[in-house]
Amino acid sequence: MSWLLNLYETYEANLDLVGKIEKRRNDQEYTLLPVSHTTQNAHIEVYITEDGQYHSASVITDKKDANTLIPCTEDSASRAGSKIAPYPLHDKLSYVAGDYAAFGGEIKKEEPFPYYINQLEEWASSPYAVDKVRSIYRYLKQGTLIRDLVNDGIVHLDEQQRLLNKWTKSGTKPDIFSVVSADQTSAFVRFTVYAPDRVVTKVWEDPEMYDSFIYYYSGKLGKEDICYVTGETAPATDKHANKIRNAADKAKLISANDSSGFTYRGRFKEGNEAARISYEVSQKAHNGLKWLINRQGKIIDGRVFLAWGNEALDVPGPNEDSYSLAPEGATDSPQRISYTNREFARELAKALEGYRSRIADSTEAKVNVLVLDSATTGRMAVLYYRSMNVGLYLDKLIEWHSSCVWLHRYRKDEQGVPVQFNGAPATKDIAYAAYGPNAGDKVVKGLMERMLPCIIDGRVIPKDILTSLYHRASNPVSMDKWEWEKTLSIACALINKSKEGFGVALDKDNNDRSYLFGRLLAVADVLERRALGEEIRASNAIRYMNMFSKHPARTWATIQSCLQPYQARLGTKATYWSQIIDEIGSRIPPEQFNNKPLSDLYLLGFYSQRHELYRKKENNDNKEDNDTAEAPIQP
Predict the structure, then answer these.
(1) What does the alpha-carbon distance between residue 13 and residue 365 come to, in Å, rounded to a whole number?
(2) Does residue 265 or residue 398 have the better pLDDT?
(3) Up-side HSE of residue 595: CA atoms within 13 Å toward CB?
(4) Other Cβ atoms within 10 Å of 176 Cβ, number
(5) What is the pLDDT of residue 627?
(6) Choosing a second label site near 457 at 20 to 30 A (CA), which of 251, 393, 416, 594?
(7) Which of 208, 217, 194, 227 is nearest to 45 (CA)?
(8) How far apart are CA 606 and CA 546, in angstroms?
(9) How many Å apart are CA 26 and CA 112, to the nearest integer?
C-alpha cells in the first residue's frame, strides 16, 4: 500500500494545481483531476442559456479540444456493456436526450434517460448546486435535445425521421460522422452555459462546478470502514479508477469483480476482505498517478516508467543517460578526457546539487520509482516499485553514472549539434545496442525494466545483456559505422561497470590477455586508416573483428599479413606503428598467444588504444604527426 500512500500524499501536496489545465509537448491537455471526476472525449458541445433554453451546438472536430473533465459516480466510472449507470452531467446521446427513443434510438433493456435526469435533478435540487447545473437541468428535462440538434444540423435523420446510422447520401459528409467511431448514437455530449452579455467559464473548466459535485456526492457515499492506506475511518469503495494511461485505458490496478467462478481464488469470501481503501484515498491516488504519467511518465508499448518526488515532483529519471541529467558535467572536453570515475562522480554530484538543495530542508523527502503494465485489457500490475530517501536515491544515481561510464559520441544537443559526453547510456539506448535498432517495443521495455534494479538497487547487470552487447560490438560489418560506434561505446560502458576499475584512458600497465589483444587490433585499425587517407572503407581489422574475438592468434596472423602493403605505403612513418605492435605483442606470454576466445575486456582495450592513438600527442614530433584529434562520429 505504500505506493498508494505516496501517490495520495503527492496529490495532497499539489492541491493548488487541481483542475488547472497543463499541456504536454504535443499540445495535448491534461490536468490533476478533482475527486469524483474523470475525463472523456466529447463529440458534441451544446450551449444552454442561463434561463434553461437551447442556444446552439457544434461538432468538436479538433481532437485536442475534445478531452473534457466530467463529474462521475462510482458506478458510472466503471460501467460496461449494457449496464445503466449515467454520468451526473455530460454523457452519451442515449443518456442525455429525452427524445432519444422518439427518433429511433436503440433501447437495449430500458431507457437510460429517466435514470440520468433523476440523478441530475437530485444534484440540481441539492444545497450544493450552482446556477449552471440548474440551467442545464431545466433544459434537459424538456426532452428536446435531439430535435434541437437536428434543427441545428448537428445530427441527421433518415427518410423515416430516425437517427441515421451511416452517411450514404451524396454531398459533403457531415462532421459528426467523422468524429464518432460508430454511429451518431454513440456521440458524447458536453454542456456549457451561454450568456450574451459576458464571457462565462466553461462548465468543465469551472472550479465552482467541481466543488459543487464533490460536496453533493460526498453525502451519497457508502458505509465507513478502516482505510488500509491511511489507517483512518472513512467511506470505503470497491470500485477503483481506470483510464490510468490514457482516456481509452480500461485496465485497473485494483479490482475485485470475480464474484462468480473462482470467487477471489478461494482466499476470501468478499472482495473487501483483501483490502479496504477509502473512496477519497482511491480517487486522489489514482488521479495523482494519471497526472504524473501525463506530466513526466514514459510509456513504451503500454509499460509506464515513472519517477517522482513527494515534495519536489521533478526528479532525475533512472532511465536517462548522463548527458540528460547533467549536460555541463557530462560533456567532454580535451582538458577532461582522462577523468577518473571518482572525479566524474564529483562533477555529476555538483550538477545534481541544485535538486538536492531544493529539498535540503526536509529529511523525509522521498523519491518513488514505479513501473506499470497490463497483461490484459482489464488488469494492470505494479511490476517494480521503490520508495527511498531522496538523498539515497541521488547517491545511487551518482554511483551508477560514475561507474557505468564511458566516452560516447552519439548524442546531439538542443540545436542538433553532435556532442560527446562521459557517463552512462540511457537504458533505452542499451536496449537498441544489445538487440539492434529493429528491436520490438516488448524487448525494449523488458530490458529497461530489468536494468532498474541494477541502477537503483545496485544489482549485477544480467549476463545475457552483456553477452549480447559483446557479440554485437564484435561484429561491426553487420551495421553502419555510426551505429557500431554507438554500440561499441555502450558495450564498453556496461563492461566497465561489470569489471570496475577501467576507464577510457589507456591502461598501459594492464597485462590481461584480452585487453592486450584488443590493443593490437586497435593499432592495426588505425595504421590502415592512416595509409588509406581519404579513402573510406572498413579496415581489415574491422572486417575480421568478429573472427578475431573467437580465434585471436590465427586471425591476427591474417590481419598482420594484410598490413604489409599499408606499412609499405607509409614508408618510414610505419615504424612508429610497428614499434607499438611489437611492444604490445611482447607483453603476451607465448602460452597465452593462442586461439582461446577473448573476454569482453578486449573491447575496452580496443577502444582505449584507438582513442589514445587519435588523441593529440605532445613531445612526439619525431615519430608521427598526430595533431589530428578524433572527430565526433555522426549518424
Answers:
(1) 12
(2) 398
(3) 5
(4) 22
(5) 37
(6) 251
(7) 194
(8) 13
(9) 37
pLDDT band at 363 (very low <50, low <70, confident <90, very high): low
From the number of C-beta atoms within 10 Å of its C-beta (0-12, 13-18, 19+), residue 192 rates as buried
- Cα–Cα distance for residue pair 406/503, rounded to 1 Å: 7
Rounded to whole angstroms, the Cα distance separating 297 from 287 reads 14
Grid coordinates given for 326: 547533467
pLDDT band at 360 (very low <50, low <70, confident <90, very high): low
CA dist., res. 582 & res. 520, Å (int): 9
Cβ atoms of 611 and 506 within 8 Å: the answer is yes
Interatomic CA distance for residues 85 and 74, integer angstroms: 9
> Residue written as cell 470500485?
239
Q: What's the distance, Cα to Cα, between the start and end of the chain in Å?
A: 46
Q: What are the sequence ranges of the domains in the chain?
A: 1-25+222-296, 33-220, 297-497, 513-614
All three cell numbers of 431? 536496449
Tell me the C-alpha distance between 318 and 565, whole Å: 50
pLDDT of residue 260: 67
Q: In 3D, which of 200, 451, 504 has the Cα closest to residue 339?
A: 504
Residue type at 287? N
Which residues in 418-518 belong to E strands, given as ranges? 418-423
Beta strands in 157-214 (DSSP E): 188-194
Kindly indicate the confidence band of residue 519, based on its pLDDT and cuts at 50, 70 and 90: very high
Report the SS3 class of residue 595.
coil
Please name the residues in contact with 486: beta carbons below 8 A apart, sequence gap of 6 or more.
408, 409, 410, 429, 433, 635
Is a pLDDT exceeding 80 seen at residue 41? yes
Rounded to the nearest angstrom, the gap between the alpha carbon of residue 171 and the centroid of all alpha carbons in its chain is 44
Parallel, antiparallel or unpaired: strands 44-49 and 54-59 = antiparallel
C-beta atoms surrounding 534 within 10 Å: 4
What string of DSSP letters covers 206-233?
Answer: -HHHHHHHHHHHHTT---EEE-TTT--E
Taking the C-alpha atoms of residue 190 and residue 57, their distance in angstroms, rounded to an integer, is 10
> 384 Cβ partners below 8 Å, 6+ apart?
369, 370, 371, 449, 452, 453
What's the pLDDT score for residue 618? Answer: 37
Mean pLDDT of the chain: 86
CA–CA separation, 159 and 227 (whole Å): 57
Amino acid identity of residue 266, one-letter, is G
How far apart are the C-alpha atoms of 112 and 378, rounded to whole Å? 25
How far apart are the C-alpha atoms of 448 and 371, rounded to whole Å? Answer: 10
Residue 69: predicted pLDDT: 92
Kindly report the backbone phi and psi dihedral angles of residue 353, in degrees, each rounded to the nearest multiple of 5, phi listed first.
-65, -30
Residues across the chain: 635
pLDDT at 334 over 60: no
Location of C-alpha cell 578526457: 337
Asked if the model's pLDDT at residue 171 lies above 80, the reply is no
pLDDT of residue 310: 81
More confident residue, 351 or 437: 437
Cell numbers at residue 508, please? 598501459
- Count CB-CB contacts under 10 A for residue 414: 6
C-alpha cell of residue 333: 572536453
| CA-based nearest residue to 493, from 468, 469, 510, 518 | 469
